[in-house]
From TrEMBL:
UniProt keyword annotations, A-Z: Cell wall, Disulfide bond, FAD, Flavoprotein, Glycoprotein, Nucleotide-binding, Oxidoreductase, Secreted, Signal
Transmembrane segments: none
Alphabetical list of SUPFAM superfamilies matching this protein: FAD-binding/transporter-associated domain-like
Protein name: FAD-binding PCMH-type domain-containing protein
Length: 535
Protein backbone atom coordinates (compact mmCIF):
# COMPACT_ATOMS: atom_id res chain seq x y z
CA UNK A 1 0.00 0.00 0.00
CA UNK A 2 1.37 3.40 -0.97
CA UNK A 3 0.09 5.50 1.94
CA UNK A 4 2.93 6.59 4.19
CA UNK A 5 3.09 7.87 7.75
CA UNK A 6 5.55 10.58 8.67
CA UNK A 7 6.18 10.07 12.38
CA UNK A 8 7.20 13.08 14.43
CA UNK A 9 7.64 13.74 18.11
CA UNK A 10 4.60 15.30 19.73
CA UNK A 11 5.29 18.87 20.71
CA UNK A 12 4.67 18.71 24.43
CA UNK A 13 4.98 22.45 24.89
CA UNK A 14 2.22 23.22 22.37
CA UNK A 15 0.05 20.51 23.85
CA UNK A 16 0.45 21.99 27.31
CA UNK A 17 -0.43 25.47 26.03
CA UNK A 18 -3.56 24.06 24.44
CA UNK A 19 -4.55 22.22 27.59
CA UNK A 20 -3.97 25.34 29.68
CA UNK A 21 -6.26 27.28 27.35
CA UNK A 22 -8.88 24.58 27.77
CA UNK A 23 -8.71 24.57 31.53
CA UNK A 24 -8.82 28.35 31.84
CA UNK A 25 -11.76 28.91 29.50
CA UNK A 26 -14.29 26.13 30.15
CA UNK A 27 -15.92 24.38 33.12
CA UNK A 28 -13.81 21.75 34.85
CA UNK A 29 -16.03 18.76 33.96
CA UNK A 30 -15.88 19.52 30.24
CA UNK A 31 -12.26 20.54 30.43
CA UNK A 32 -11.32 17.23 32.02
CA UNK A 33 -12.94 15.17 29.25
CA UNK A 34 -11.25 17.14 26.51
CA UNK A 35 -7.87 17.33 28.23
CA UNK A 36 -7.91 13.60 28.92
CA UNK A 37 -8.73 12.85 25.29
CA UNK A 38 -5.99 15.11 23.92
CA UNK A 39 -3.34 13.69 26.24
CA UNK A 40 -4.47 10.17 25.43
CA UNK A 41 -4.18 10.87 21.68
CA UNK A 42 -0.65 12.19 22.19
CA UNK A 43 0.33 9.18 24.28
CA UNK A 44 -1.10 6.67 21.81
CA UNK A 45 0.00 8.18 18.49
CA UNK A 46 3.43 8.39 16.89
CA UNK A 47 2.53 11.43 14.78
CA UNK A 48 1.87 14.93 16.07
CA UNK A 49 -0.97 17.15 14.91
CA UNK A 50 -1.67 20.89 14.89
CA UNK A 51 -4.12 21.41 17.74
CA UNK A 52 -5.90 24.45 16.34
CA UNK A 53 -6.81 22.73 13.08
CA UNK A 54 -7.40 19.19 14.35
CA UNK A 55 -9.33 19.58 17.60
CA UNK A 56 -12.52 21.68 17.82
CA UNK A 57 -14.62 22.43 20.86
CA UNK A 58 -17.51 24.86 21.23
CA UNK A 59 -16.23 26.14 24.54
CA UNK A 60 -12.77 27.05 23.29
CA UNK A 61 -13.56 28.41 19.82
CA UNK A 62 -17.25 28.50 18.98
CA UNK A 63 -16.85 29.77 15.41
CA UNK A 64 -14.27 27.12 14.42
CA UNK A 65 -16.36 24.42 16.08
CA UNK A 66 -19.48 25.56 14.22
CA UNK A 67 -17.62 25.57 10.90
CA UNK A 68 -16.14 22.11 11.51
CA UNK A 69 -19.55 20.73 12.48
CA UNK A 70 -21.56 22.24 9.64
CA UNK A 71 -19.19 22.42 6.66
CA UNK A 72 -20.05 18.98 5.25
CA UNK A 73 -23.40 18.29 6.92
CA UNK A 74 -26.21 18.10 4.36
CA UNK A 75 -29.46 17.96 6.31
CA UNK A 76 -30.18 21.22 8.13
CA UNK A 77 -32.80 19.43 10.25
CA UNK A 78 -29.91 18.14 12.34
CA UNK A 79 -28.05 21.42 12.68
CA UNK A 80 -30.74 23.34 14.55
CA UNK A 81 -29.91 24.75 18.01
CA UNK A 82 -31.98 22.00 19.65
CA UNK A 83 -30.02 19.21 17.93
CA UNK A 84 -27.54 17.35 20.16
CA UNK A 85 -23.96 18.57 19.70
CA UNK A 86 -20.72 16.63 20.11
CA UNK A 87 -18.40 17.28 23.05
CA UNK A 88 -15.74 17.99 20.45
CA UNK A 89 -14.64 17.17 16.91
CA UNK A 90 -11.32 15.51 16.09
CA UNK A 91 -9.92 15.59 12.55
CA UNK A 92 -7.08 13.04 12.24
CA UNK A 93 -4.19 13.68 9.87
CA UNK A 94 -2.77 10.16 9.89
CA UNK A 95 -4.05 6.65 10.34
CA UNK A 96 -2.27 6.44 13.70
CA UNK A 97 -4.50 9.28 14.93
CA UNK A 98 -7.58 7.22 14.09
CA UNK A 99 -6.21 4.27 16.01
CA UNK A 100 -5.53 6.52 18.99
CA UNK A 101 -9.02 8.06 18.78
CA UNK A 102 -10.63 4.62 19.01
CA UNK A 103 -8.42 3.56 21.91
CA UNK A 104 -8.98 6.82 23.79
CA UNK A 105 -12.73 6.88 23.24
CA UNK A 106 -12.91 3.34 24.54
CA UNK A 107 -10.73 4.15 27.56
CA UNK A 108 -12.69 7.32 28.43
CA UNK A 109 -16.08 5.74 27.59
CA UNK A 110 -16.87 8.28 24.92
CA UNK A 111 -19.24 7.40 22.11
CA UNK A 112 -17.84 7.91 18.59
CA UNK A 113 -19.62 9.19 15.51
CA UNK A 114 -17.66 8.66 12.29
CA UNK A 115 -17.87 11.07 9.36
CA UNK A 116 -16.20 11.02 5.96
CA UNK A 117 -18.49 13.12 3.76
CA UNK A 118 -21.41 14.15 5.96
CA UNK A 119 -24.13 12.93 3.59
CA UNK A 120 -25.98 10.72 6.07
CA UNK A 121 -29.66 11.53 5.47
CA UNK A 122 -30.55 11.23 9.14
CA UNK A 123 -27.40 12.97 10.37
CA UNK A 124 -26.04 9.84 12.07
CA UNK A 125 -22.45 10.81 11.28
CA UNK A 126 -22.68 14.04 13.26
CA UNK A 127 -25.67 13.76 15.63
CA UNK A 128 -26.59 11.20 18.28
CA UNK A 129 -30.05 10.91 19.76
CA UNK A 130 -29.23 7.81 21.82
CA UNK A 131 -25.92 8.76 23.45
CA UNK A 132 -25.74 11.80 25.73
CA UNK A 133 -22.00 12.37 25.35
CA UNK A 134 -20.48 11.76 21.93
CA UNK A 135 -17.56 12.95 19.83
CA UNK A 136 -17.09 13.17 16.07
CA UNK A 137 -14.06 11.70 14.36
CA UNK A 138 -14.06 13.50 11.01
CA UNK A 139 -11.94 11.76 8.37
CA UNK A 140 -12.02 14.60 5.83
CA UNK A 141 -8.27 15.21 6.08
CA UNK A 142 -7.46 11.59 5.22
CA UNK A 143 -7.89 11.92 1.45
CA UNK A 144 -4.83 10.42 -0.26
CA UNK A 145 -5.51 8.74 -3.61
CA UNK A 146 -2.98 6.41 -5.24
CA UNK A 147 -3.98 5.24 -8.73
CA UNK A 148 -2.10 2.31 -10.30
CA UNK A 149 -3.27 1.97 -13.90
CA UNK A 150 -1.06 -1.05 -14.57
CA UNK A 151 -2.87 -3.10 -11.94
CA UNK A 152 -6.27 -1.49 -12.68
CA UNK A 153 -6.62 -0.44 -9.05
CA UNK A 154 -6.51 2.52 -6.71
CA UNK A 155 -6.09 2.91 -2.95
CA UNK A 156 -8.32 5.70 -1.71
CA UNK A 157 -8.49 7.18 1.78
CA UNK A 158 -11.94 7.44 3.35
CA UNK A 159 -12.08 11.24 3.47
CA UNK A 160 -11.66 11.71 -0.28
CA UNK A 161 -14.77 12.66 -2.23
CA UNK A 162 -15.91 10.49 -5.08
CA UNK A 163 -15.35 13.46 -7.40
CA UNK A 164 -11.70 13.57 -6.36
CA UNK A 165 -11.42 9.86 -7.03
CA UNK A 166 -12.85 10.27 -10.54
CA UNK A 167 -10.49 13.16 -11.25
CA UNK A 168 -7.36 11.33 -10.07
CA UNK A 169 -8.25 8.24 -12.10
CA UNK A 170 -8.73 10.28 -15.27
CA UNK A 171 -5.56 12.21 -14.51
CA UNK A 172 -3.70 8.92 -15.01
CA UNK A 173 -5.83 7.39 -17.77
CA UNK A 174 -8.72 8.51 -19.96
CA UNK A 175 -9.69 4.87 -20.46
CA UNK A 176 -10.28 4.00 -16.81
CA UNK A 177 -13.11 4.88 -14.45
CA UNK A 178 -14.96 3.64 -11.38
CA UNK A 179 -18.69 2.78 -11.07
CA UNK A 180 -19.86 4.82 -8.09
CA UNK A 181 -21.94 7.82 -7.10
CA UNK A 182 -23.72 10.48 -9.09
CA UNK A 183 -23.19 13.12 -6.37
CA UNK A 184 -19.48 13.95 -6.57
CA UNK A 185 -19.14 15.39 -3.04
CA UNK A 186 -19.88 12.04 -1.38
CA UNK A 187 -17.16 10.89 1.01
CA UNK A 188 -16.00 7.56 -0.32
CA UNK A 189 -15.64 5.99 3.13
CA UNK A 190 -19.37 6.00 3.86
CA UNK A 191 -20.43 5.82 0.22
CA UNK A 192 -18.87 2.44 -0.58
CA UNK A 193 -19.86 0.81 2.70
CA UNK A 194 -23.54 1.34 1.87
CA UNK A 195 -23.31 -0.06 -1.65
CA UNK A 196 -22.57 2.97 -3.88
CA UNK A 197 -24.70 3.02 -7.00
CA UNK A 198 -24.03 5.16 -10.05
CA UNK A 199 -24.56 5.57 -13.75
CA UNK A 200 -22.36 2.57 -14.67
CA UNK A 201 -24.08 0.16 -12.28
CA UNK A 202 -25.91 -1.64 -15.10
CA UNK A 203 -22.54 -2.32 -16.77
CA UNK A 204 -20.28 -3.04 -13.78
CA UNK A 205 -22.44 -3.26 -10.66
CA UNK A 206 -22.08 -1.12 -7.54
CA UNK A 207 -18.98 0.53 -6.16
CA UNK A 208 -19.04 -2.10 -3.39
CA UNK A 209 -19.01 -4.84 -6.06
CA UNK A 210 -15.70 -3.43 -7.29
CA UNK A 211 -13.67 -3.34 -4.08
CA UNK A 212 -10.55 -5.47 -3.82
CA UNK A 213 -9.37 -4.70 -0.28
CA UNK A 214 -9.94 -2.38 2.65
CA UNK A 215 -8.13 -1.00 5.68
CA UNK A 216 -10.10 -0.50 8.87
CA UNK A 217 -9.49 0.28 12.53
CA UNK A 218 -11.29 -2.22 14.74
CA UNK A 219 -12.65 -1.72 18.26
CA UNK A 220 -9.22 -2.60 19.69
CA UNK A 221 -7.48 0.12 17.71
CA UNK A 222 -5.80 -2.32 15.32
CA UNK A 223 -5.45 -1.66 11.59
CA UNK A 224 -6.68 -4.64 9.58
CA UNK A 225 -6.65 -5.34 5.86
CA UNK A 226 -8.76 -7.93 4.07
CA UNK A 227 -6.49 -10.82 4.99
CA UNK A 228 -6.33 -9.80 8.65
CA UNK A 229 -10.03 -9.06 9.12
CA UNK A 230 -11.18 -12.22 7.32
CA UNK A 231 -13.63 -12.77 4.49
CA UNK A 232 -16.74 -12.52 6.66
CA UNK A 233 -15.93 -9.00 7.83
CA UNK A 234 -14.79 -7.99 4.34
CA UNK A 235 -18.15 -9.24 3.05
CA UNK A 236 -19.97 -7.22 5.73
CA UNK A 237 -18.16 -4.01 4.88
CA UNK A 238 -19.43 -3.98 1.29
CA UNK A 239 -23.01 -2.88 1.79
CA UNK A 240 -23.92 -2.92 5.50
CA UNK A 241 -23.82 0.86 5.99
CA UNK A 242 -21.34 2.85 8.03
CA UNK A 243 -20.60 2.84 11.73
CA UNK A 244 -21.07 -0.85 12.60
CA UNK A 245 -17.80 -2.74 12.22
CA UNK A 246 -14.98 -0.23 12.50
CA UNK A 247 -13.51 2.93 11.04
CA UNK A 248 -12.94 2.70 7.31
CA UNK A 249 -9.47 4.09 6.58
CA UNK A 250 -9.20 3.26 2.91
CA UNK A 251 -10.60 1.18 0.06
CA UNK A 252 -8.70 -0.56 -2.71
CA UNK A 253 -10.87 -0.06 -5.79
CA UNK A 254 -10.96 -2.10 -8.98
CA UNK A 255 -10.89 0.27 -11.94
CA UNK A 256 -13.11 -0.45 -14.92
CA UNK A 257 -12.63 0.33 -18.63
CA UNK A 258 -14.43 3.34 -20.10
CA UNK A 259 -14.52 4.38 -23.79
CA UNK A 260 -12.96 7.55 -25.17
CA UNK A 261 -16.41 8.76 -26.17
CA UNK A 262 -19.39 8.87 -23.82
CA UNK A 263 -22.76 10.37 -24.71
CA UNK A 264 -25.13 12.13 -22.33
CA UNK A 265 -28.58 13.62 -22.78
CA UNK A 266 -31.59 15.03 -20.97
CA UNK A 267 -35.11 14.94 -22.43
CA UNK A 268 -37.90 16.53 -20.42
CA UNK A 269 -41.61 15.79 -20.78
CA UNK A 270 -44.56 17.19 -18.83
CA UNK A 271 -47.97 15.67 -18.23
CA UNK A 272 -49.26 17.74 -21.13
CA UNK A 273 -46.72 15.99 -23.38
CA UNK A 274 -47.95 12.49 -22.47
CA UNK A 275 -45.48 12.36 -19.58
CA UNK A 276 -47.46 9.75 -17.64
CA UNK A 277 -47.73 7.37 -20.60
CA UNK A 278 -44.02 7.77 -21.33
CA UNK A 279 -43.03 7.03 -17.75
CA UNK A 280 -45.21 3.94 -17.77
CA UNK A 281 -43.30 2.75 -20.84
CA UNK A 282 -39.91 3.57 -19.26
CA UNK A 283 -40.77 1.26 -16.36
CA UNK A 284 -41.20 -1.61 -18.81
CA UNK A 285 -37.91 -1.14 -20.67
CA UNK A 286 -35.39 0.63 -18.36
CA UNK A 287 -33.98 -2.55 -16.81
CA UNK A 288 -33.81 -4.33 -20.19
CA UNK A 289 -31.88 -1.71 -22.17
CA UNK A 290 -28.33 -2.20 -23.43
CA UNK A 291 -25.99 -2.43 -20.41
CA UNK A 292 -24.02 0.53 -21.72
CA UNK A 293 -27.10 2.72 -21.28
CA UNK A 294 -28.37 4.22 -18.03
CA UNK A 295 -31.50 6.38 -18.08
CA UNK A 296 -32.79 7.75 -14.80
CA UNK A 297 -35.90 9.90 -14.37
CA UNK A 298 -35.99 13.05 -12.23
CA UNK A 299 -39.55 14.01 -11.33
CA UNK A 300 -40.85 17.18 -9.71
CA UNK A 301 -43.61 19.78 -10.01
CA UNK A 302 -43.05 22.60 -12.52
CA UNK A 303 -44.87 25.66 -13.76
CA UNK A 304 -46.83 25.22 -16.98
CA UNK A 305 -45.88 27.46 -19.89
CA UNK A 306 -49.30 29.05 -20.28
CA UNK A 307 -50.41 29.65 -16.70
CA UNK A 308 -49.37 29.82 -13.08
CA UNK A 309 -50.71 26.33 -12.50
CA UNK A 310 -48.28 23.53 -11.77
CA UNK A 311 -47.75 20.33 -13.68
CA UNK A 312 -45.37 17.40 -13.30
CA UNK A 313 -42.02 17.44 -15.08
CA UNK A 314 -40.23 14.17 -15.91
CA UNK A 315 -36.62 14.56 -17.05
CA UNK A 316 -34.94 11.53 -18.63
CA UNK A 317 -31.23 11.88 -17.98
CA UNK A 318 -29.00 9.38 -19.72
CA UNK A 319 -25.39 8.26 -19.94
CA UNK A 320 -24.28 5.94 -22.74
CA UNK A 321 -20.84 4.34 -22.89
CA UNK A 322 -20.40 4.95 -26.61
CA UNK A 323 -21.00 7.45 -29.39
CA UNK A 324 -24.31 9.10 -30.37
CA UNK A 325 -24.74 7.00 -33.50
CA UNK A 326 -24.84 3.71 -31.62
CA UNK A 327 -26.95 5.27 -28.86
CA UNK A 328 -29.59 6.36 -31.37
CA UNK A 329 -29.68 2.83 -32.80
CA UNK A 330 -30.21 1.39 -29.32
CA UNK A 331 -32.92 3.91 -28.52
CA UNK A 332 -34.76 3.37 -31.79
CA UNK A 333 -34.86 -0.33 -31.11
CA UNK A 334 -35.66 -0.30 -27.39
CA UNK A 335 -37.21 3.02 -26.38
CA UNK A 336 -38.31 5.01 -29.45
CA UNK A 337 -41.13 6.59 -27.45
CA UNK A 338 -38.68 9.02 -25.83
CA UNK A 339 -38.04 10.57 -29.24
CA UNK A 340 -34.32 11.06 -28.66
CA UNK A 341 -32.57 12.89 -31.54
CA UNK A 342 -28.95 13.59 -32.35
CA UNK A 343 -29.53 17.21 -31.32
CA UNK A 344 -30.35 16.01 -27.79
CA UNK A 345 -27.02 14.17 -27.51
CA UNK A 346 -23.79 15.60 -26.10
CA UNK A 347 -20.67 13.70 -27.13
CA UNK A 348 -18.04 14.00 -24.42
CA UNK A 349 -15.49 12.17 -22.25
CA UNK A 350 -16.31 9.93 -19.30
CA UNK A 351 -15.14 12.49 -16.73
CA UNK A 352 -17.25 15.21 -18.37
CA UNK A 353 -20.24 12.86 -18.45
CA UNK A 354 -19.88 12.42 -14.68
CA UNK A 355 -19.89 16.19 -14.26
CA UNK A 356 -22.93 16.54 -16.53
CA UNK A 357 -24.96 14.11 -14.43
CA UNK A 358 -23.75 15.78 -11.23
CA UNK A 359 -25.10 19.11 -12.46
CA UNK A 360 -21.90 21.05 -13.10
CA UNK A 361 -22.09 23.87 -15.68
CA UNK A 362 -20.88 22.81 -19.12
CA UNK A 363 -18.02 25.32 -18.85
CA UNK A 364 -16.72 23.96 -15.54
CA UNK A 365 -13.22 22.44 -15.76
CA UNK A 366 -12.70 18.92 -14.46
CA UNK A 367 -10.65 20.45 -11.62
CA UNK A 368 -13.99 21.56 -10.13
CA UNK A 369 -14.32 17.97 -8.91
CA UNK A 370 -11.47 18.61 -6.47
CA UNK A 371 -13.54 21.08 -4.42
CA UNK A 372 -15.12 18.11 -2.65
CA UNK A 373 -17.90 20.16 -1.07
CA UNK A 374 -21.62 19.99 -1.73
CA UNK A 375 -23.74 23.09 -2.18
CA UNK A 376 -26.84 21.04 -1.34
CA UNK A 377 -27.96 22.15 2.11
CA UNK A 378 -31.66 21.94 2.89
CA UNK A 379 -34.11 20.90 5.52
CA UNK A 380 -35.32 17.63 4.08
CA UNK A 381 -36.80 14.22 4.68
CA UNK A 382 -35.95 11.30 2.41
CA UNK A 383 -37.17 7.75 1.95
CA UNK A 384 -36.58 5.01 -0.62
CA UNK A 385 -38.37 2.16 -2.36
CA UNK A 386 -37.68 -0.65 -4.81
CA UNK A 387 -40.12 -1.51 -7.59
CA UNK A 388 -40.57 -5.01 -8.97
CA UNK A 389 -43.70 -4.51 -11.12
CA UNK A 390 -44.49 -1.45 -13.28
CA UNK A 391 -46.66 1.09 -11.49
CA UNK A 392 -49.93 1.33 -13.47
CA UNK A 393 -51.17 4.53 -15.07
CA UNK A 394 -53.76 5.09 -12.35
CA UNK A 395 -51.06 4.68 -9.70
CA UNK A 396 -48.94 7.34 -11.35
CA UNK A 397 -51.88 9.70 -11.66
CA UNK A 398 -52.58 9.35 -7.95
CA UNK A 399 -48.93 10.07 -7.23
CA UNK A 400 -49.09 13.27 -9.26
CA UNK A 401 -52.03 14.42 -7.15
CA UNK A 402 -49.92 13.88 -4.03
CA UNK A 403 -46.93 15.72 -5.52
CA UNK A 404 -48.99 18.73 -6.50
CA UNK A 405 -50.10 19.10 -2.87
CA UNK A 406 -46.50 19.58 -1.65
CA UNK A 407 -44.22 22.63 -1.98
CA UNK A 408 -40.93 21.10 -3.18
CA UNK A 409 -41.14 17.33 -3.58
CA UNK A 410 -38.63 15.45 -5.69
CA UNK A 411 -38.27 11.84 -6.73
CA UNK A 412 -35.51 10.15 -8.71
CA UNK A 413 -36.02 6.75 -10.33
CA UNK A 414 -32.86 4.77 -11.09
CA UNK A 415 -32.95 1.73 -13.40
CA UNK A 416 -31.59 -1.68 -12.48
CA UNK A 417 -31.07 -4.75 -14.67
CA UNK A 418 -27.88 -5.57 -16.52
CA UNK A 419 -25.03 -6.52 -14.19
CA UNK A 420 -27.22 -5.74 -11.17
CA UNK A 421 -29.46 -8.68 -12.08
CA UNK A 422 -26.50 -11.05 -12.55
CA UNK A 423 -24.88 -10.64 -9.12
CA UNK A 424 -26.45 -12.91 -6.45
CA UNK A 425 -28.20 -11.06 -3.63
CA UNK A 426 -25.97 -12.83 -1.09
CA UNK A 427 -22.73 -11.76 -2.81
CA UNK A 428 -22.60 -8.71 -0.53
CA UNK A 429 -24.98 -7.41 2.17
CA UNK A 430 -26.66 -5.28 -0.54
CA UNK A 431 -29.50 -7.59 -1.65
CA UNK A 432 -31.47 -5.57 -4.22
CA UNK A 433 -30.52 -7.43 -7.37
CA UNK A 434 -32.47 -9.69 -9.75
CA UNK A 435 -36.15 -8.87 -9.98
CA UNK A 436 -35.72 -5.17 -9.22
CA UNK A 437 -36.86 -2.89 -12.04
CA UNK A 438 -35.76 0.36 -10.46
CA UNK A 439 -35.09 2.15 -7.19
CA UNK A 440 -36.96 5.25 -6.05
CA UNK A 441 -35.58 8.05 -3.92
CA UNK A 442 -38.24 10.25 -2.32
CA UNK A 443 -37.45 13.76 -1.07
CA UNK A 444 -39.31 16.73 0.28
CA UNK A 445 -37.38 19.94 0.90
CA UNK A 446 -38.11 23.17 2.73
CA UNK A 447 -36.26 26.26 3.96
CA UNK A 448 -38.02 27.53 7.09
CA UNK A 449 -36.82 24.92 9.58
CA UNK A 450 -39.18 23.93 12.39
CA UNK A 451 -41.90 26.31 11.20
CA UNK A 452 -43.27 23.93 8.56
CA UNK A 453 -41.45 20.69 9.40
CA UNK A 454 -44.52 18.89 10.72
CA UNK A 455 -46.51 19.61 7.56
CA UNK A 456 -43.77 18.31 5.26
CA UNK A 457 -43.10 15.23 7.37
CA UNK A 458 -46.80 14.40 7.37
CA UNK A 459 -46.94 14.80 3.60
CA UNK A 460 -44.05 12.35 3.22
CA UNK A 461 -45.75 9.87 5.53
CA UNK A 462 -49.01 10.11 3.56
CA UNK A 463 -47.31 9.79 0.16
CA UNK A 464 -45.21 6.83 1.38
CA UNK A 465 -48.35 5.10 2.63
CA UNK A 466 -50.08 5.69 -0.72
CA UNK A 467 -47.20 4.02 -2.60
CA UNK A 468 -47.19 0.88 -0.47
CA UNK A 469 -49.27 -1.22 -2.86
CA UNK A 470 -47.05 -0.35 -5.84
CA UNK A 471 -43.59 -1.19 -4.46
CA UNK A 472 -41.71 -4.22 -3.14
CA UNK A 473 -43.35 -6.26 -0.39
CA UNK A 474 -42.34 -8.71 2.35
CA UNK A 475 -40.25 -6.76 3.05
CA UNK A 476 -40.89 -3.30 1.65
CA UNK A 477 -37.23 -2.79 0.80
CA UNK A 478 -35.10 0.32 1.33
CA UNK A 479 -31.57 1.51 0.52
CA UNK A 480 -29.31 1.78 3.57
CA UNK A 481 -27.44 4.81 2.22
CA UNK A 482 -30.77 6.64 2.22
CA UNK A 483 -31.09 6.27 5.99
CA UNK A 484 -34.65 6.38 7.24
CA UNK A 485 -35.21 6.24 10.99
CA UNK A 486 -38.97 5.90 10.41
CA UNK A 487 -38.23 2.26 9.62
CA UNK A 488 -37.10 1.59 13.19
CA UNK A 489 -34.19 2.08 15.55
CA UNK A 490 -32.03 0.13 17.95
CA UNK A 491 -33.09 0.26 21.57
CA UNK A 492 -34.49 -1.76 24.40
CA UNK A 493 -37.61 -3.59 23.36
CA UNK A 494 -37.17 -2.76 19.67
CA UNK A 495 -36.80 -5.51 17.09
CA UNK A 496 -33.95 -4.60 14.72
CA UNK A 497 -35.50 -6.88 12.11
CA UNK A 498 -38.07 -4.12 11.53
CA UNK A 499 -35.49 -2.05 9.67
CA UNK A 500 -32.72 -4.61 9.10
CA UNK A 501 -34.75 -6.86 6.82
CA UNK A 502 -35.82 -3.87 4.73
CA UNK A 503 -32.24 -2.82 4.08
CA UNK A 504 -30.63 -6.27 3.84
CA UNK A 505 -33.36 -8.91 3.40
CA UNK A 506 -31.98 -12.38 4.18
CA UNK A 507 -28.46 -11.03 4.70
CA UNK A 508 -29.37 -9.30 7.96
CA UNK A 509 -28.99 -12.27 10.28
CA UNK A 510 -25.54 -13.04 8.83
CA UNK A 511 -24.54 -9.43 9.49
CA UNK A 512 -25.68 -9.74 13.12
CA UNK A 513 -23.64 -12.92 13.57
CA UNK A 514 -20.50 -11.30 12.13
CA UNK A 515 -21.01 -8.20 14.29
CA UNK A 516 -21.32 -10.32 17.45
CA UNK A 517 -18.02 -12.05 16.70
CA UNK A 518 -16.08 -9.00 15.50
CA UNK A 519 -17.33 -6.26 17.85
CA UNK A 520 -18.97 -8.16 20.74
CA UNK A 521 -19.02 -5.10 23.04
CA UNK A 522 -20.89 -3.11 20.37
CA UNK A 523 -18.38 -0.28 20.54
CA UNK A 524 -19.32 0.94 17.05
CA UNK A 525 -23.02 1.70 17.28
CA UNK A 526 -25.73 4.14 16.33
CA UNK A 527 -29.50 4.26 15.85
CA UNK A 528 -29.40 1.77 12.96
CA UNK A 529 -26.05 0.04 13.37
CA UNK A 530 -25.90 -3.74 13.05
CA UNK A 531 -26.71 -5.11 16.53
CA UNK A 532 -24.81 -7.91 18.26
CA UNK A 533 -28.00 -9.88 18.89
CA UNK A 534 -31.66 -9.97 17.96
CA UNK A 535 -34.43 -9.70 20.53
Amino acid sequence: MAFTLIPTNANAFLVMLFLLSLSSSIPLSYSSIQQDFVMCIVDNSDASFPMESSFFTHDLNASSFKLALETSAQNLRYLMPSSPKPEFIFEPLYETHVQAAVLCAKKLRLHLRLRSGGHDYEGLSYVSEIESAFVIVDLSKLRNIDVDVESNSAWVHAGASIGEVYYRIQEKSKLHGFPAGLCTSLGIGGHIIGGAYGSMMRKFGLGADNVLDARIVDANGKILNRAAMGEDVFWALRGSGGGSFGVILAWKLKLVPVPETVTVFTVTKTLEQDGTKLLHKWQQVADKLDEDLFIRVIISPAKTSKSKERTISTSYQGQFLGDPSRLLQVMQKSFPELGLTKKDCLETSWIKSVMYIAGFPSTAPSEALLAGKSLFKNYFKAKSDYVEEPIPIEGLEGLWEKFLQEDSPLTIWNPYGGMMAKIPETETPFPHRSGTLFKIQWLTLWQDGKASETRHMEWMKDMYSYMEKYVSKNPRSAYVNYRDLDLGMNGKGNDAREWGNKYFKGNFERLVKIKAEFDPENFFRHEQSIPTELE
